[in-house]
Amino acid sequence: MKKTLNKVVEILNAQNIDEANVKARIILREIANMTVEDMLLDREVKNEDEVLSFAQKLAQTKMPIQQLLGFGYFMGEKFKVTPDTLIPRDETEILVKCALDKVKELQKDEIKPLSVLDIGTGTGAIACSIAKNSQNVEVLGVDISSNALMVALENAQKLDLIKRVVYRKSDIFSALREGEVFDIVVSNPPYISEKDYKNLDTTVKDFEPKTALLAKNDGYEFYEKIISQAKKYVKYGGYILFECGQNQAQKICMMLERNGFQVSDVVRDLAGIERVVAAQMIFIEEDELTF
Ligand SMILES: C[S@@+](CC[C@H](N)C(=O)[O-])C[C@H]1O[C@@H](n2cnc3c(N)ncnc32)[C@H](O)[C@@H]1O
Predict the structure, then answer these.
(1) Mind listing the pLDDT tens digit for each residue in 211-264?
(2) Which of 54, 172, 178, 194 is deepest in the core (most CB within 10 A)?
(3) Rounded distance from Cα 128 to ligand 1 centre (Å)
(4) CATH number of 73-288
(5) Predicted TM-score (pTM) above 0.90
(6) Ligand 1, closest atom to CA 190?
(7) Residue 39 pLDDT
């Protein structure tokens, strides 16, 4: 096994693939079903040819490994990915964990039914993970991409969540019905500015959908669009949560505060970047006030 591992690392290094050691171990785990124990005991790799040919394809195409495998892991579950979907990122787990904390808070006294809206659901990784790790919660995932929604549906089916996660094609809120409101709205929207998009790594730019990444107005397009309409869709006392790009959190907090929300959390990722913003709906329509 060590011999095969070294050959894989060599193939990847020859094409300057980053994190060659980590990727080599992933290839052995996923293509040869090698466990940590197999690795420690240096067991023979039965399908070395297949393993090496996968490594060569990865090195030549420079595709993200999840795209070549056809899946990636998120919150411990396997999610199908295709060229139409963003590969779920580790930092997005922070957003899911924060949303799950809000679910717990809202269900503190009783496990009452809650509704969650996931805007820009992609593979459905956020929607499915929230449903999977909570009780009595229904999630609606919306996306503008029909192809992404087909992948999201497959993921929900595989995770046996089809009764609790539904999807709808929608340009942000466009397909929501009058009066449809949610306890929690969550979104990891496209947030890369035109300027930053130009400098993105080619493994991202060449293989992940532009519509999942790029946002006008210096990256704030979707935050502006969502926040300006959000008070119609978030219940009083409910929450809105966003993943944000580097240095975007403070401006997003200001937008939220100006639009009927009170910021409750700003959570940093492992690199110290303010990655997630959560805010509570505190605005009451005048005609809803009772004296
Ligand atoms: C950054 S990706 C997030 C994907 C997934 N939620 C995740 O976290 O891995 C943004 C998603 O927003 C979707 N999207 C882009 N424009 C949209 C729009 N106008 N309305 C709804 N979804 C949109 C893209 O298709 C993409 O799936």
Answers:
(1) 999 999 999 999 999 999 999 999 999 999 999 999 999 999 999 999 999 999
(2) 54
(3) 15
(4) 3.40.50.150
(5) yes
(6) 1
(7) 87
